[in-house]
Every structure is written in C-alpha cells, then in structure tokens.
Design a protein that fits this description.
single chain; alpha+beta; four-stranded mixed beta sheet; 7 helices; 13 strands; 25% strand; Secreted protein; signal
Length: 300
C-alpha cells in the first residue's frame, strides 16, 4: 500500500480550516483506506485510489473515551466522484508515488501528459456537453466575454467548479473537490495525469471563446487571448489587439455576416483602444492594417 498525504504546502491556495477537513490522501491499491485517512489528521478526508479508480470519504475524529482516532465513513458527493472518474477515463490508472506529485511548480506544464479539449455548446439542446455548462452564462456570447473582465473571471470560476464537481453546496466538500482535481492535473509522469483541460465554447450565436485550466488555475479557468472568433471565423478583439506583440495578427480583410456583427466587432475594438472609421449599421466589410506600431481599421 502506498499512501501519500498531500499537505498544506501543495494546496496552500485551497486550504480550509483543519477542524473541517484534513485533505486528500493518495493510497494506491489501498489495503485499508480508513487507516490512510486516520494518518492524515482530523476532519473530512478523501482517500484516492488511482489504480482502483475509487474515492473513499471519511471524517476523522478523536474518541476521548477510547483515547484514539477513528474514521467514520462519509459518502463522497456524486459530483466529485464523477469528476474524478472523468479524469481517470482520460489519463488511465497508474501507480502514483510521491515523486509523481509536484508542488505546483512550473515543471507541471513541461512534464504533464498534455491537454484534453472539451467542446461546449451551451445553446444547442441536442448536444451533450462533457461537463454541465454554468446556467448563469448559457445566454452569453464571445463578445460578452471579451467586453467584461468580470464576465471572463466569473465564467472561468464557474467552469472550474463544474469540472471539479465543486458544486456540492458544502464549502468543505467543494474545497476537497478542488484538491482532487489538482492532483489529477499535477501528476508529472508522461503517461498519466491530464495535465490541462482546454474548453472551446461555441455560443448560440456562433461565436467562440476558449478557456484553459491546469494545476495552477484549478479554481478558475483562464480565458485565452487571441482565440475568440465571430460567427464566420473573424478574430474578435480582446487584449491581444492592444498588445504590440500580437496586434499585427488582426491585420487583413474582414467580411461580416451582418451589420450587427460588424457593430459588435467595432464596439469590442473600441474598448481596447482601436477605433474603426467609416462604419455604419449596414457595414459588412472592413480592412485593418498594421504598420509595426499601430493597427488601423476602416469599414468599407
């Protein structure tokens, strides 16, 4: 039996009161998950068995009468179990040792087994999303995301909660859910661990947004600049259009599906400091040029 206690250093950003939760313990081919939980300290504990693809939940407490610790079985919420099994279905079971788990360093990105891409279509009732899409953003679109830092951040947090199964309604279980997810994303061996997830969101109006999540961003998926597209594939203005290193990528000829689509593009460009001249409500064409310093756009 190999048991690994994942302490406060690994999950410093996810820590909660030790009286409420001891954390997550990895115990492969675990002969006694209960003993592994007891050794982790008092509070709610999840024992993770990679090879067995099982999670065990316990509340560890000190019995003053018997003068010893005991672990009382607690059912792990279904959302956390499903998130764990989803990660296992991608990475596959494998023996995990202490050397396989990184302390949230830059090495995770360099040595992880790669990225799993999830396509989400919140506006398509006939499409089965790989994770539940957050209801609060179901009617949003890519322009809503690029135009508002709050929307970008809140959507990223909601995606992270759905991915980890941190939707239990319990702060303690939700924190443990993020810890489980962080382990899945932190495994350094090249043949196991997910490494990162990439969410490609196709909104109901045909626009596209992209987010990623890894062990360093486990509680909030991060918006990917430069990858948003409108309904016909034009790059949508975001922070990249204001960055001299990437603004040149917006140079070229544009055709829009409607004057409304052009207006949305024009509005987002203005937010990031790039005006579009000569536009009207019926504009469907535009040309942008880059002189090495400035991006200039003109409707036509």
């Amino acid at each position: 039996m190999k048991a690994i206690a994942l302490g406060a250093m690994l999950f410093a950003s996810l820590s909660i009161n030790s009286a409420e939760a001891a954390g997550v313990v990895v115990c492969n081919n675990c002969f006694s998950p209960k003993d592994a939980a007891i050794n982790s300290g008092t509070g709610f504990t999840i024992v993770m068995d990679y090879d067995g693809q099982k999670l065990y939940g316990y509340e560890v407490e000190y019995d003053r009468e018997l003068k010893r610790y005991r672990a009382v079985t607690n059912q792990v919420p279904e959302s956390i179990v499903q998130a764990f099994l989803r990660g296992m279905s991608i990475s596959g079971p494998s023996s995990v040792t202490a050397n396989d788990i990184n302390n949230r360093t830059d090495a995770v990105e360099a040595t992880s087994s790669g990225s799993s891409t999830y396509t989400l279509r919140p506006g398509d009732p006939n499409y089965t999303n790989p994770i539940r899409f957050p209801d609060a953003f179901r009617n949003s679109n890519a322009y809503d995301v690029v135009n508002s830092a709050s929307v970008r951040s809140l959507l990223g947090q909601a995606l992270a909660r759905e991915l980890a199964g941190a939707t239990t309604g319990s702060e303690t279980w939700d924190s443990l859910a993020f810890q489980v997810q962080s382990i899945i994303l932190s495994i350094s061996d090249s043949t196991i661990g997910v490494g990162s997830y990439r969410f490609v969101i196709i909104w109901s109006n045909g626009t596209k947004s992209v987010y990623t999540i890894d062990a360093d961003t486990v509680t909030e998926a991060k918006y990917v600049n430069g990858e948003s597209r409108d309904d016909v594939g034009n790059p949508i203005p975001d922070a990249n259009i204001a960055n001299p290193d990437t603004a040149g990528g917006y140079a070229g000829e544009y055709r829009f599906s409607s004057g409304g689509s052009f207006g949305s593009w024009q509005g987002s460009a203005g937010i990031y400091g790039v005006p579009v001249s000569n536009g009207s409500s019926s504009t469907t064409g535009m040309s942008c040029g880059w002189d090495g310093t400035n991006l200039t756009c003109k409707a036509k």
